[in-house]
Amino acid sequence: MVASANTRLRLETVRLTALFGGQRAVHDVSLLFPANTVTAIIGPSGCGKSTMLRCLNRMHELTPGASVVGEVLLDDLNVYGDGINPIELRRRVGMVFQRPTPFPTMSIYDNVAAGLKVNGKRPQRDTDDAVSRALQQAALWDEVKDRLHTSALQLSGGQQQRLCIARAVAPQPEILLLDEPTASLDPAGTQRIEELCHALKRLYTIVIVTHNMQQAARVSDYTAFMYLGRLVEVGRTEDIFTKPKVEQTEAYITGRFG
Amino acid sequence: MTRAFRRHLYSRFMTVVVILFSFTAVLALVLILGDLVAKGASSIDWAFFTKSPVPAGQTGGGVANAIVGTAIIVGLAALIGVPIGVGAGMYLAEYGSGRLGFMVRFIADVLNGTPSIVIGIVGWTFLVKPMSKFSALAGSVSLAILMIPMLARTTEEMVRLVPHSLREAALALGYPRWRTSLKIVARTALGGIVTGCLVGIARIAGETAPLLFTALGNLNFSLSVGQPMQTLSLQIYVYATGPFDEWHRMAWASALVLMGLVLVISIAARWVTRQRYGSVR
Amino acid sequence: MTSLPNLPIEGIPSGRPSTETRWQSLLGADKSDRIYQRILTGFALALPAMILILFLVLLINALPAIKAFGAKFLVTSTWDPVAEVYGAAPMIFGTLASSLLALIIAVPLALSVAVLLTEFAPRSLRQPIAFLVELLAAIPSVVYGLWGVFVLIPFLRSYVVPPLKAVFGWLPIFQGVFYGNSLLAGGVILAIMIVPYIAAVSREVLLAVPGSQREAALAMGATRWEAVRSAVLPYGRAGLIGAVILGLGRALGETMAVTMVIGNRHDIGVSLFQPAYTMAAAIANEFSEATTSMYLSALFEVGLILFVLTVIVNAVARILIWRVARGTAVGSRAL
To answer: What DSSP letter does each residue of C108-175 carry, written as one string?
Structure first.
């Protein structure tokens, strides 16, 4: 296929269905995530948004009995195709989870560098640079630069979550997936991470799952609303929140259910 | 007396009974340890640790051969048993949710209750009879067989304590399963795994039955793994069941030394996990 | 279902490599996980291999005796190496009798400790008491035997047997002369040895009982003891029975302490004061004396019976414990 000089990443799902055994959690979702934007996926509990996210980096299939039908395309390459190595895929896609999960036996430095070592040995200086760059991107550098080799567990909850973000971006992935990243944080911590999303979208394509509609409105460029596993509506965030086209979307946004 | 009063009185009474019974149980421990010290401490001197036994009926001599023998046999047993036991435990924790895992787990639990004398005579069949000689190695293998199911289960339990979220975080970074298992999961559970190994070592250090027909025992100082070797436990058995008062005195002293060794290892085991407080959430 | 138009967005032109080479690294498989799994499975298979080998070796070595004596082996009392006639009945009797006596003494003590540790003891005392009980389990069997010979037996002789004879001497189990090494001594020493095992497992079982059970009973006005007896103990009953059976399994296989105090005599007697024998003690005592191959084979058959017995008992115990404390390694530590 012809490649143009300015190829931007194209991430999309095509008729994606995700199952747990026989149960469908995500039903026939086709969604495009524009490059260098933040797309929020919102919806009530159990609507399949987290499952949807975990399909993007092939984490869903790690659950016993889970399976996927459909395609997830990275620049027209289906990551569910034959011969694709999911482990390599996950190195190119960063993920941050609901609760901060720093590796407890490692220092701050080692935590951030954790994703780098899997790609083979690098000279120490490269790793140092990568770690400091990642910590700066996660807005954590100033707070930890003097104690990089102390235990990661000594950080506060909000700091630990930013550490996880640094760890996720250190390998310079193209895509960053955030699964309710502020769910366990206080308002101050939440705000810092939301600010991060604005800064980071210059470098990465970000998909964020959130149950907090206001957060979606603050943080994202595009919003997709899911309900019972199906994609109900998607569009520019301002449009979704001010003039939703589908009645169900309006009902959710105005709080009539959820 | 109202009914309520009687019920409360009965409850108090049962509480006292429970406390009394518990006290009796612990009393035995206190008595045994006390006797060990009372009857054994006086016989312990430098010679006790550095000399080997003297001919029967004579006074003096020590248990140097037994102390060294215990160290060698237990060390060798650990060398064999720890990799297999911990490896089996890792299997159970990482891949053990299927039918094979169920069977292995069940067998491990059943093996943990198998009499050690039975393991001893099987060890004899394999490692002594064909060679026509007793050896420390045969003893070590028998002890290793005792250790393996023990370590498998403690390792599994410790590894299972590692939160699933840590595994997920590693996998999401693009870690293959083996790397997640070793570098993240096992490393996080390491304190607990080491504790389990130390507790297992403490247990086999005191074993006698599996060694009766494998390592046999040796009155002389020996470092050779292919020859019979003495351990503290075997020494105690010989001395305690012998006819000489001198031997009985030495038996108490040897028992005190053995108990001290077991205590030190057990305390070290607990100390390891106390140090690594933050390692498992 | 709407899909997004690919809108031009301000931002840095990516200047990244072309599509085909950008995702090149994603192609290809990863064998390393499969190898790891195979290696671990190999380690795990050591366990079924061990139990199979144990059983087969015992069986093969016991076959000559099995063929020679058949089922009579289990019920005959004659054990005559000279005439080459072997009957294991006294050993089997002694094993069961000493273990039963041990259970009768140990169960109330051990359950009390477990209940104390989970229900009644103040929090600060729980760890130290638990540690003391674990220490009891760490004492080697031969040390128990030593203590049994030089402390327990004299104690029984001076302070326990006379009162028992005085009050209960008319009972057949308390008749006869007490020389020291006896079924009684064996039972008592076994009791002390299995208390920590039963206590530790019972404690884990009781800890697995949800607190809501006890709280519901207390909320309805039950006394402390009533709450324990009616809400906690029944809930954990299967597990507690399993703990006791586990203790039984341990008692059946104990060797050193028993052989040092039980008397080692091939004899079935009703009295607790008589010397007796257990299967484990017999093997320990006579294995090195076994001069003929039939003698050896008979001892292997004793070992086989003991092995099968303990496997069954432990399997039953495990099943009961698993019902309450699902699949945990309860009781499978060195403790």
So the answer is: HHHHHHHHIIIIIS-HHHHHHHHHHHHHHHHS-HHHHHHHIIIIIHHHIIIIIHHHHHHHHTTSGGG-
Straight-line distance from the first to the last Cα atom of chain C, in angstroms, rounded to the nearest whole number: 62
The domains of chain C are located at 90-289+310-324
Which residues have CB under 8 Å from B60's CB, separation 6+? B47, B51, B54
CATH number at residue A249: 3.40.50.300
Is there a domain that residue A2 lies in? no
Q: Which CATH number goes with the domain that contains B170? A: 1.10.3720.10
Question: Is the residue at A126 inside a domain?
Answer: yes
The CATH architecture assigned to C90-289+310-324 reads Orthogonal Bundle (1.10)
Query: Would you say residue A3 lies in a domain?
Result: no
A32 and C3 within 8 Å at the Cβ level: the answer is yes
Are B8 and B56 in the same domain? no
Q: Do strands C85-86 and A222-227 pair parallel, antiparallel, or not at all (unpaired)?
A: unpaired
According to DSSP, residue A150 is labeled: S
In chain B, the residue whose alpha carbon lies closest to the alpha carbon of C196 is B25
Contact check, Cβ <8 Å, B174/A87: yes
CA dist list (Å): B152 to A145, C34, C52, C335:
42, 21, 17, 14
Verify that B127 and B105 share a domain, yes or no: yes
Q: What is the pLDDT of residue C280?
A: 96
Q: How confident is the model at residue B272 (pLDDT cuts 50, 70, 90)?
A: confident
Q: Looking at the DSSP assignment, which residues form a beta bridge with residue C263?
A: C276
Most confident of B133-147, C7-21, C111-125, C215-229: B133-147
Predicted confidence at residue A1, as pLDDT, reads 32
Are B37 and B54 in the same domain? no
How distant is the Cα of B82 from the closest Cα of chain A, in angstroms? Answer: 22
Residue B281 inside a domain? The answer is no
Q: Are residues B167 and B223 in the same domain?
A: yes
Q: What is the pLDDT of residues A50-88, one digit of tens each?
A: 999 999 999 999 988 899 999 999 888 899 988 888 998
Query: For residue C31, what pLDDT band results from cuts at 50, 70 and 90?
Result: confident
CB atoms inside a 10 Å sphere around CB B74: 25
Tell me how far apart the alpha carbons of residues C51 and A102 are, in angstroms, rounded to a whole number: 41
Give residue B20's domain range. Answer: 3-43
pTM given for the model: 0.87
Identify all chain C residues contacting B113, using CB atoms and an 8 Å cutoff.
246, 249-250, 253, 310-311, 313-314, 317
Q: Do A3 and C14 count as a contact with CB atoms less than 8 A apart?
A: no
**How many domains, in total, are found in chain A?**
1
Q: What is the pLDDT of residue C10?
A: 39
The number of domains in chain B is 2
Residue B141 sits in the same domain as residue B39: no
- The residue range of the domain holding A89 is 11-253
Chain C residues lying within 8 Å of B84, measured CB to CB? 43, 46
**pLDDT band at C59; cut points 50, 70, 90:** very high
Side-chain-facing half-sphere of A219: CA atoms under 13 Å? 31
Cα–Cα distance for residue pair C47/B108, rounded to 1 Å: 6
Q: Would residue A6 count as lying in a domain?
A: no
CA distance B249 to C69: 44
Summarised one tens digit per residue, pLDDT across range B107-140 is: 999 999 999 999 999 999 999 989 888 999 999 9
DSSP string, A171-234: T--SEEEEESTTTTS-HHHHHHHHHHHHHHTTTSEEEEE-S-HHHHHHH-SEEEEEETTEEEEE
**Judgement on whether residues B27 and B92 belong to the same structural domain of the protein:** no
Q: Which residues on adjacent β-strands are paired with residue B47?
A: none
Spell out which residues of chain C touch residue B26, defining contact as CB-CB under 8 Å: 113, 129, 132-133, 136
Q: Tell me what the mean pLDDT of segment A153-173 comes to.
A: 93
What is the tens place of the pLDDT at every residue in C182-229?
Answer: 999 999 999 999 999 899 889 888 888 888 888 888 888 888 788 888
In this structure, are B16 and B141 located in the same domain? Answer: no
